[in-house]
Structures are given as C-alpha cells and as structure tokens.
C-alpha cells in the first residue's frame, strides 16, 4: 500500500510516499543496546558550537533529521560544521558577533526545538533570517517564542497567519535584556529567551513555575557563560544570564536519549519473557518522569552503574517483562516526561486497572495533537480509554487485540509507540507511515529487530 502525505511545504523530508509498517506479536525481547544520542543535547551542542570561539568537538551526536537540519542552519549562519565519523562532529564557531544572514530560508523540517532555539539565537544578532519547516511544523505555534523575542527587540519582518512559519526575523545586536516568566512549561521557550539573552546588554532572567529540562543552562555554564540557577516556588526555577559573554568551545559527549530509550524499555515490559539492557541512558532528573511512573506501576527496571559522564548522570537500565498496575500520573510530572506520554499510554494498555495521566494540554501542540492521536490509536487497537478535558485515562487489560492502520500524522513518537504496542498484541498493529521516525531515532527499526521484534 502506498499513499501520499499532505503536501510538505518547505521540507524535502515528508513529501515522498508514506511508508506503512506492521509490528506483530513477538517472542521475548533480549539484548543490550545503546539508543542514539539525546536530541535536546545534540541540538544545543551544535548551536553553542556556532556561538563559541574555537572548535567544539561533539561525540555521540544524534544523526536524526531534526538535528541534521540544525547542523545545516548553523553552517548557513556562519559556522564550519564537519562530520568526522559516525556521531563525531566538529563545529568551528562564528564567535559572539560573527553570525551572518543566511542566503536561503532555513528549513527545520519537523523540529520544534531546532526552529524555536534558532529563532532565539538569531534574535540577539545583527542577522535577518527566514525560518520554515514541513507541514507539521507550519501548524505549530511560534507566538510563544515571538512574544518574548519581540519584547527583546527582534522584528518580525514577515510571517504566515497567527505568527506561524514561514516567518522572517530581523535580529538586533542591541537586544534588551528582559525578565520573562514563561506562560507554559517549555524548555524551548526558556532556551530561546536565554539564547537571545547572549546578545543582550545586562541580565536576562527566565522564571519558570515548573522546572523543565535544563540542558541549555548546563551548556551555558559549560561554554563559560555566567549563569545562575535558583529554585523558584515549589516546582520552579529562576535562571539569570549575564549578557555578552565570550563563549569558548568545549567538548560535548552526548548521552543516550531517554526519550528514545522509552520505546525498547516499554516493549521489554509488555512482551512476555523479555530481558533487555539499555546502556548509557541520560538520567537527568528533569527527564526521568517516565521511569518514576513505570516504577510506581510495578515495572522491573534495575538502574545499574549510575555515574556522571560529561556533566550528566547516566546509567544502564536492565528491564524485564513485568505485571503493571494502573497509577495516577500527576500534572506536575508532565515536564519531566512530556514526550513519553504516547508510549506510557501503551504500557497502560497492558496494566491492571486505570492509568490516569493528568494535565496534558501541551501534548496538543507537538508534531501532532498527541492527545487526539493517542486516543484514536488506542481506539483502533481495541484499548478502553477516555479523554476528559486535558486528561487521558487508559484502562488496561491482560490482552490487547491490536489493529490499524493507526494514523501517525507526521509524528515519530506516535509511529514508534503503536509499533511497540503491536509487539505484545494479539493480531499485530499497522501504522500508516514510519518515515518520520528518522527525525529522532533513525535506527529504531533495525535496533528493535535486533532485540527480536517482528516488524516489517
Ligand atoms: O527543549 C527541548 O529540547 C524540548 C522541549 C520540549 O518541548 P517544549 O519546550 O515545547 O515543551 C520537548 O517536547 C521537545 O521534544 C524537546
Ligand atoms: C516534541 C518533540 O520535538 P520537537 O518539539 O523538537 O519537534 C519530540 O521529539 O517529541
């Protein structure tokens, strides 16, 4: 079967024929694997390399489409970006004031992180650039980033309706430092403001009521900026950055992505007899909400050899098939597991009782409306569930029928989640398109097959 996706405006990716796939009930999964490098850290390593003086060496870089688009954008803005070998990259920085206006629009494909962080990077520089992406990215809200950036002095030269892509920004080397409280928990918004703050005179402050992933703050310090992070309220943080620092190239070793590890991890939990070890997984506490939740559900996840590598906690995770039970997942945990809800819903489908996931409004503005896409996928596979406002309630069962084709809506995490569900289902699960898996986890299919998964 071959169908064509809705027109993908800017991106070369996504305008080819759809690639359907099917996952069948599989024998016990076993093996030891390292999933690719963390996507959030990979984007940031390249962007900090662009700003730094000297050559930044990055090892373990995720070579997924999202990150490759950020690498291209860094080159278009004046960095010299070289691939020395698999995951081994060098970025010769343009320096603090060295960015140049790109000749052509910057195409970020499917990536919210790439485009939003780069808008912030450009805002504090004397640069004009056009930002674009595929049909999914063109639908996503950019106003959340444009609001603080315009307060700092960036000019929106042109944009599609509602401040959406494609849009053209004129940055300024006279950016104003601001104090900004993010209206929603978003590391992308926080990071865009901080990156713009690199070009500002004075101190840029971001306040977040709920702490979100802190890779930008960590990398600012690693590259030599003066950045202070303090607690704010019960769950929040206040981040203060002194403007116009000289960033100095520093090596970055990217740990394995916990958001990618989530897929073989949940697969091992739900396929009877499985025993899988995932190595070098980043254990930054602002990324481990899924592990916390699965442990509460009764999952057998052994955290082995926890250590610090390149400034991040990492560990090997030994995961064995487990009898899961439903739990309440509180809304304040959402930032620490925001990309993992689709695959948590799959684990919940096999748990005894109800798993209630609360406060998921941000899921509606991802690569797809993930709340709707997950609910539709669960319905197609015969899983009892309910969406109540922004909450998702899944009622698990000992057996799940399967079915499909599940509509993936240009969303890698929907595609991978439902293929994982298929591995433990009675009749298998088909999905309409796996092409977008290449944005974050290009080796997903061969790696899963290597563990024993039956996917074709
Ligand atoms: O900053 C980042 O690297 C990311 C932040 C999150 O998005 P939001 O900032 O929109 O929550 C997350 O969903 C995305 O996959 C990566
Ligand atoms: C939401 C995601 O990414 P982005 O916002 O960068 O497109 C994701 O990877 O799940």
Give the key terms.
UDP-n-acetylglucosamine1-carboxyvinyl-transferase, Chain, four-stranded mixed beta sheet, 24 strands, single chain, 13 helices, binds shikimate-3-phosphate, 2 domains, 456 residues, globular, disordered N terminus, alpha/beta, binds phosphoenolpyruvate
Radius of gyration, whole Å: 21 Å
User: How many extended strands?
Assistant: 24
User: What would you call the structural class?
Assistant: alpha/beta
Number of domains: 2
> How would you name the oligomeric state of the polypeptide chains in this document?
single chain
CATH homologous superfamily designation of the largest domain: Enolpyruvate transferase domain
Tally of helical runs: 13
CATH-level-2 architecture of the largest domain: Alpha-beta prism
Distinct bound molecules? shikimate-3-phosphate, phosphoenolpyruvate
**Strand order of the biggest β-sheet:** 22-23-1-24
- The overall pLDDT average reads 96
| CATH topology term of the largest domain | UDP-n-acetylglucosamine1-carboxyvinyl-transferase, Chain
Largest sheet: 4 strands, mixed
Q: What is the helix fraction of residues, given as a range?
A: 25-40%
Beta percentage is: 25-35%
CATH class of the largest domain: Alpha Beta
């Amino acid at each position: 079967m071959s169908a064509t996706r809705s027109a993908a405006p800017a991106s070369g990716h996504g305008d080819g024929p759809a690639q359907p796939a099917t996952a069948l009930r599989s024998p016990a999964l076993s093996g030891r694997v390292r999933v690719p490098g963390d996507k959030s850290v990979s984007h940031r390593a390249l962007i900090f390399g662009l700003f730094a003086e000297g050559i930044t060496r990055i090892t373990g870089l995720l070579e997924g489409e999202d990150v490759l688009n950020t690498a291209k954008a860094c080159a278009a803005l004046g960095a010299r970006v070289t691939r020395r070998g698999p995951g081994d990259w060098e970025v010769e920085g343009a320096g603090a004031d060295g960015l140049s206006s790109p000749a052509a629009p910057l195409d970020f494909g499917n990536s919210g992180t790439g485009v939003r962080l780069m808008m912030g990077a450009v805002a504090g520089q004397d640069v004009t650039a056009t930002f674009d992406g595929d049909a999914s990215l063109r639908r996503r809200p950019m106003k959340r980033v444009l609001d603080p950036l315009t307060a700092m002095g960036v000019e929106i030269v042109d944009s599609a309706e509602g401040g959406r892509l494609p849009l053209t920004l004129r940055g300024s080397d006279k950016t104003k430092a601001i104090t900004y409280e993010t209206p929603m928990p978003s590391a992308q918004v926080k990071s865009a403001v901080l990156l713009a703050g690199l070009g500002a005179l004075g101190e840029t402050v971001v306040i977040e009521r709920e702490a979100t992933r802190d890779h930008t703050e960590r990398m600012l310090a690693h590259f030599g900026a003066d950045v202070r992070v303090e607690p704010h309220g019960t769950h929040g943080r206040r981040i203060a950055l002194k403007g116009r620092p000289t960033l100095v190239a520093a090596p970055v070793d990217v740990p394995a992505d916990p958001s990618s590890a989530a897929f073989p991890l949940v697969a091992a939990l739900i396929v009877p007899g499985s025993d899988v070890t995932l190595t070098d997984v980043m254990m930054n506490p602002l990324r481990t909400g899924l592990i916390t939740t699965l442990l509460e559900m009764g999952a057998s996840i052994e955290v082995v050899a926890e250590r610090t590598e390149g400034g991040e906690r990492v560990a090997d995770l030994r995961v064995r098939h487990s009898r899961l039970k439903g739990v309440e997942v509180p809304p304040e945990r959402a930032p620490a597991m925001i990309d993992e809800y689709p695959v948590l819903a799959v684990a919940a489908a096999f748990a005894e009782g109800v798993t209630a996931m609360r406060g998921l409004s941000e899921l509606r503005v991802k690569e797809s409306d993930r709340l709707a896409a997950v609910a539709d996928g669960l319905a197609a596979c015969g899983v009892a569930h309910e969406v109540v406002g922004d909450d998702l309630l899944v009622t698990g069962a000992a057996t799940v029928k399967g079915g499909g084709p599940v509509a993936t809506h240009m969303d890698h995490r929907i595609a991978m989640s439902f293929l994982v569900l298929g591995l433990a289902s009675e009749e298998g699960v088909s999905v309409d398109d796996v092409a977008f898996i290449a944005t974050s986890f290009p080796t997903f299919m061969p790696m899963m097959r290597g563990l024993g998964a039956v996917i074709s």
